[in-house]
Each structure stands twice: as structure tokens, then as C-alpha cells.
Amino acid sequence: MGGHGTASEIDLANGDASEGTGLDRREYRNIFGDAGDDEFYAPPSTAPASRKQHRKSLRWLVKVMANKIDNDDKVRNARIPAGYTYLAQILIHDSVQTLAPLPSLESDNAWRRNNRASRLVLDTIYGGGPQADPLIYAIDRKPRNERALLRLGRIKDPSAPDNTGPSRDLLRTGCPHLEDTRHLGGNPGDAAKARADVMIADPRNDDNLLISQMTVLFHLLHNALYEKITDGSNQRGGAPGAFWSFIRARRVVTLIYRTIVFKDLLSRLLHPDVYEAYDAKKTTKEFFDHDDRRMPLEFSHGVARIGHAMVRGRYRINKELKDNVDGKGHGVISFLTRTSTHLPTKFPLDKKWLVNWSFLFELGNPAPELPQSSRKISPSAIHEFSHLPHFGPVRDGVGRVGEADGLFYRDFIRGAESCLRSVSSILANLPRDISDQSPLVTNGKLDTAKIDAWILERQPLGDEQKADKHRQTIASNPPLLFFCLLEAALTGLPADAAEDEAEYGTCLGAVGSAIFAEFVFKERLETQNIFEKNEDLLELRDELLEGKKMETMPDLIRWISEQHGWDTPDDGFSS
């Protein structure tokens, strides 16, 4: 339960950077301005019959993408270790928060709302702050009894005398009046131990074990910095008390997060030429998109969903938790279901499920197979995202329930029926020096022949007449997400500075990178006076970190380990 009429702490600290725009940042828009009727990516009409026919083509496309699925080793992306998939998920959660249901054939989907009005300020971790969202904060016994520490939950450690380990998980609790947990995967007598409620600002950060453990990292970072600020030696510059200390700690954490996102994550995820060009932009006039701070649909419902292709089919997260068959790790469903929503009776989290971060980031582990890499970016996802009913059935009036009901089909429907620009319209608004770098663009125009050839090579055997019709539909007007995935798969970069041989699918292509960069770099520019250009904040950060750099995820993990006196960066996280 949040406070009523309480401004967020970012608003209280030198004002909200979004003031004066005259626009509701919770609404959506098109990139490059409002699209005209001939610029939308959409079925030929909004009639249910037409939309149903278009959905049949999208279902068929998902079957094509799932017809040839390589295992993780064959699509290993050495450029992006596996942990960055989940840092990217934090970034998306920090930018977009839409809980709208999947569009139905009968609805016109005219009203869309993004509840993440402030972006790149870690609202996904902090919510509205301790005054607005007190339940996610621990009571601090310092002056004013403010809630300023982010809550953490203890793990289960069978080797400890009381079976209780350190605080290395999100805080999870249960309803004391819950009498039957069979609907939560437990037995009638398990009500007392059903931890069905997770105390965090954004419930999506418990969507899977890996993102929940990454959220723990940011909780630990905040708490360590907050303790340093309130230990009596860092009270300069501002009013005393836990509330002001919280503001300062949150700002430093957010500055560190933004530094890691832009210097570490985006330098890997975006095409190098596009990344360098956008990183050098100094004013909004240097961007191609309009100066409109509403959320561009082409980011939120298009390119932002590329992370689904990067998820591995199997993960090893530490030395102890191995698959009994080949030792290569557990299937991804094990991690998707180890949450309070799916397995509340399995918490507190057992120590054996703690993530050893050297398995997911470059922390200097000498094992040649570590860190594990993400999957290459391509129009192909793991089997579990294409076939299994983990995400629930799609009752869309097309095909049989449970057939092609995976994650990409949902992504395609949302994109197709949310008024996105067509790929051709986006290309018409991008400068040629960007668009012509794409392997799917020729002279500034969409190269439909290459898309057609890629699909033809992979389409399953069946009714050739129907297949030809679906293929023509997709090739002539591809879903934006599919275009970005295929563009990435056909974009080659040298595997090493000394090598000429190119690796494909290791980053987004030029067009996908430009759409992504237009949003995130402009958002950074809008709030840089609060963070990157705030000299007092930079000085406080350097003082708290004692001059050490924190520009990468490995830097963050190592620093946390040093604060706790661990012998290695993994000691506090691994079994």
C-alpha cells in the first residue's frame, strides 16, 4: 500500500526532469511522430476476420522460427555473456510497465497506458521510495526511524545450526489466513510456509530466479552505500536524517546503474557504429526522433523484446546444482518457475539455488566454458518459448489452443495490433547512412527478397499454397520484432580485432540498434543534469567507492563482495 499524494524521491530532489513537456509520459506514441494511415504496420483492416487471417500468418511464422532450433552451444554469443540478458530485462522493466491483456479479436485496443512515467531512474527497484511504498523497505533504527534499507530475505542453509543462511534473496512472505495451498503447488497443510508474496517494487523482477537474484544485487548495492552515507563520515552537503541519506544513496545507485547500462550493456548489445554515434550525441537536435517524451511503441512493443531470443535453454548457476544427465545445467523452466508465483512452498530459497555470478559474467573464473554466453540474436528461441504451455494458452480464435502459443507469438500479436509503424515507414525516416548498413535494406528500401529466401529455407513441409501466401505476407510487411531479429542474425562483426572472419548475430543490426538507441540515449540526455552532470553526485560516488571504478557488472559484483569481506566475488552467492 503506497502513500497518498506522496511525490517520489526523484521528484523531490531538484525537480522532475519531465516537467514542462505538456505531455502525459504514461501514454504511447509512434517513433518519428504520429504515423499516417499508410505508415502503420497492421492487418488490411481492423475487422475481426481480417485480424484473424493476419494472426494465422503470425502463427505460421512462429512455426517457421521453431522449425530449426539449435542448442545453446551452436549459437553461443561470445560478445554477450548470459547475465546481460537479465540486466537488459531490468532496463526494460525500468522503462516500460504495461499490464494490459493480450488483444482480443473483438477489441480495438484504443487505450494503452505505460505506468512507468519516469525512466532510467530505477523505479523498478525503488518504487516511489520509502514514503510512497513503505512495505518494500526495512525499518532503520537511525534518526527519525525512516524506512531506508531495501528489504532482503534470508536463504535456507542446511549446514547452519538453525537452517537459516544470510540475506541473499528477495523478502518473501505469506498470508497468515491462507489455509489451502494446493492451488499454489503445495499440500493442504503447507499454508504456513507458502511464501506467495514477494516484497519488491516491481513484481516482474521475480519473473524468474535469475532476475530475482540480480534484483538482490541492486538491493545489496543500495544498502551498502546507504550504510556508508549514514555511518557519520558522509553527512556533508544536505539535511541530516535517514530520508536525505536515502535520497543520496538512491541517486548514487542510479548513477552507477546508468553507467553500467550505457558503458557495459549497450556497448555489447548495439551495433558498434550506431553505439558510438549515439554515445556522442549532446543535444536533442541531434536525434532523428521527435522531441516527444511519451513512450515510442516501436521500442516497447518491438525491439525491446529481442531479449527473448537471447535466453538459454539450459543454465548452470553454480558448482553444485547440476543436471543429473550431462552436468550442463538445469533447463530454463526450472528457473522460470522458481518464483513466489509458481512455487511459493519452495521458499525460503535453498542455498543450492544461489547464483554464482562467475557462471554468468566475466569474473575471472579459469574454467574454459565460463562464463556461459547468451544465445545469438536471431529469429529463433529456445524450444520452451515456442511450444510449452508455461505462459498459458492463447485463446485467439486462431488454430488450436496450445499450438504456437509461445512467447514470440504473444510478442507478434502485441506488435501487430498496437499501431506500430511498418518497417518501410521506419526506413523512410532513418538516414541512409544508418539504414543502408542493414543487410535487409538496399538503397534505403526493405529487401523483401532476402526475407523471403530466409523463410523459404526454413519453412516446414505442408500446404505449399498456404505457405506461399503466408510467406508473401511476412516478407512484404514483416513484424518489426522479426525484422530486428533477422537483421541481427545477418549482421556480421569481426569475432576479434585481429580476425577478419565475421561472427553473425552477436548484436543488433543497424536499424534495430538505432530504434533502441533513439529511446535510451534520449532518456539519458533528458535526466543527465540530475545524474551524469551533477558534480556533487559524481564527487559523492567517488568518495563512497574510494576512487574505484564501477562501470561494468563485474565491477559491481566485486565491490559488493569486498564490502562483505568475501574471499572471492562469489562467496556470498554460491553454494
Structure commentary:
Helices cover 35% and strands 8% of the residues. α3 (83-93) packs across α5 (209-229) and α6 crosses α18. Mean pLDDT is 85; it is low at 1-21 and 233-239. The chain has 575 residues and is mostly helical. The protein has one domain (9-151, 199-318, 354-563): Myeloperoxidase, subunit C (Orthogonal Bundle).
A few lines on this structure:
The chain has 575 residues and is mostly helical. The chain has helices at 9-12, 48-66, 83-93, 123-126, 209-229, 242-269, 272-279, 297-300, 332-336, 383-386, 407-416, 423-429, 432-435, 448-458, 464-476, 480-489, 510-527, 535-544, 553-563; strands spanning 28-29, 76-81, 137-139, 147-150, 153-156, 164-169, 172-173, 197-198, 295-296, 314-315, 330-331, 373-375, 441-442, 445-446, 492-494, 502-504.
Mean pLDDT: 85
The total beta strand count reads 16
CATH class: Mainly Alpha
The fraction of residues in strands falls at: 5-15%
* Number of domains as seen in the coordinates: 1
Give the overall form.
Answer: globular
How far is the first residue's CA from the last residue's CA? 35 Å
Uncertain spans, ≥5 residues at pLDDT below 50? 1-21, 233-239
What is the third-level CATH name, the topology? Myeloperoxidase, subunit C
What quaternary form is this? single chain
Biggest sheet descriptor: 2 strands, parallel
Question: What is the alpha-carbon Rg in Å?
Answer: 24 Å
Let me know the CATH homologous superfamily.
Haem peroxidase domain superfamily, animal type
With strands numbered from the N-terminus, the spatial order across the biggest sheet is 1-9
Give the structural class.
Answer: mainly alpha
Give me the CATH architecture, please: Orthogonal Bundle
| Helical coverage, percent range | 25-40%
Number of discrete helical segments: 19
